[in-house]
Amino acid sequence: MSHPAPLSSAERRAISYANTLHQLVSHILTKREGADRVLANYFREHKKHGSKDRKLIRETLFGLFRWWGWLKNLPATDGADAHKEPGFSASFSSGLGQAQSPGWFTQLSLVAAIENHPWQDIQSGWLSLANLSQLEIPAFGDTPESLNHICAALTQQFAYEFAPSNLLPDWAWEHIKLPDTERLAFIDALCRRPPLWTRAQGTSREKVIKELQADDISAIPSAVFDDAIELASQSINLDAVTAYTSGKLEVQDLASQAIGEVAAPGARERWWDACAGAGGKSLQLFSLMQKKGGVGELIASDIRPKALEELLRRAEKAGFAPIHISPWRSDKLPVKSDYFDGVLVDAPCSCTGTWRRNPDMRWIDDASAILDKPALQLDILRRASAAVRSGGLLVYATCSLARAENEAVVEAFLTSNEDFELDATTHPFSGEISAMLTLWPQQANADGMFAARLKRK
């Protein structure tokens, strides 16, 4: 009687990682809970994992969601020649293979191969457990066309048609509209790891970069904004970075920074950040006014007290006083009406523009994430507009790429608010002149956002 060959050390470790990742992905997809939170809770409860374990688990987990549009439809596989039948045995309808099935090990192997993971022993273990000798996949190169090359190779190997458009859920294409010629570049951008964008504040970018270099951190100045800095590594412990702990450096994505640049507050103006959250854009507005000669008045509001507490902490660290807070406690306007030179409404939204940073959200959300927001967005915009003085500026922004949350909300607002009109500005990434700007991830290696400038007559 023959006995199965004993597992190698690499295979045993590969199974351990596979079980952990299956547990995490199952939780995220069934509970529809964000991957960042699930992963943070898991690491808090499982102190056994060292830095290498944590990195491998994190990189593979987010890689799985980047490519989930392909993985969830991967045909059944019990070996290199068993790629005939679509839809291998799944633990539930999401397309997740069973924890120790060849299908799950194939899914893991595919992610590791596409993203060129450095853990070769674990990748080899997953391949062996999937009964595959290897996966013939071309490198995920620097150009969007490399996605087509990967699709062709996978289609040939698995006898199933792979397409770049499948990397987003079908419902997304009904709401995210862009020319066919831009689709491949857009999908390509969403499938790449996002950079870590930061912003110098209270001092020059050159001084901050010198401090970063002293901490042995590679920093790349942005060609778009004179205070934006890209950090080459995402695995930086910011609490050990002098420039960050002293308040001279803030983490803020480049597309988010573009909103402050579109607002373009002048020296000593009065501004209200109506949906401030933890204050990233409030701090930027303060910094921009400071650079132009001085801050007039800046008030930040939100319905969440904890977020405003974090804003004040960040402002104190940066030495940005005074930023005043005025929480939304009811439907009543929390600030003076007809008073501000500028009002920023960074409205709550579906966050489709952050799908690059949060690829799990593509698969745990559905169309309701977009469709249930416009009424709230329009209501907030109408209420906040009352605070704009005659001749003042109203800036509406979201981190959504859906027209229903963006242009449609602005158009509905203008229909019933004839004392406002569109105010054109220059798109910071494309250079086009428009009053309503969509910032696409493929334009500047950043998140996606929308901004509109409106002026009170």
Automatic annotation (TrEMBL):
Among CDD domains, the record links this protein to: AdoMet_MTases
Q: Which GO terms describe its biological process?
A: methylation
Coiled coil residues, start to end:
none
- List the active site: 399
The record, for SUPFAM superfamilies, names:
S-adenosyl-L-methionine-dependent methyltransferases
**Domain SAM-dependent MTase RsmB/NOP-type residues, every copy:** 184-457
**Stated name of the protein:** RsmB/NOP family class I SAM-dependent RNA methyltransferase
Question: Is RNA-binding a UniProt keyword of this protein?
Answer: yes
The protein's GO terms of the molecular function aspect are: methyltransferase activity
